[in-house]
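For this section, I looked closely at a protein sequence along with its fold in token form, which I now present.
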Amino acid sequence: MRTKPPSPIANRAEARREQILEAALDVFSEKGYHEAGIADIAGKLNIGHGTCYRYFKNKLDILHALVDRILLGLLEVVRKESPEKSNSIEEYRNQIKNIGWELFQLFSKDPRQAKIVFFEAMALDETVKRKVQLGIDKSARLTELYLKNGVKKGFLRRELDTRIASQAVNAMMFEGIRINLSSKVDSKFAKRWLEEMPTLMLEGMGKR
């Protein structure tokens, strides 16, 4: 059975919805969620308040839609590599670097997204915080597949607690992104972080 293509009206509605989300991303990251209002979002687009309410129930509904979109992009990055691709510790180290670089780039190219997920959302409504946490948990479960592959193939230790380790890996990665965006420590911070973090994970800090 052939699926009908979206109608022009549906396409216009989706385009308007995306415009509202983009404007909201600007407004929330500039003013903060609490200080921002539907009027600010509508003003960015030179549209009336009623147009926004045609696509979203309220400001919180817009925030939920933004968080959904950002988390989807994050999970797509983690899924880019195959968890079963690595056959050695060095191949896995490269996977960590590749995924990490993609995540740093995702949020560096659009710092507004990082501000929403890492700063705004976690201090807001419980339903939003829960959604972000569920997204982070899902990312950790994907990361765990890489670790289980390493245990199975013998290049990671057999007794590794893959659930805890996957959460630690993600925590280090997200903390690096947060520091990079909030402090602007140096232009090579992402590269330095992605060199040191896998070494810390895989070799520890003991003298070799």
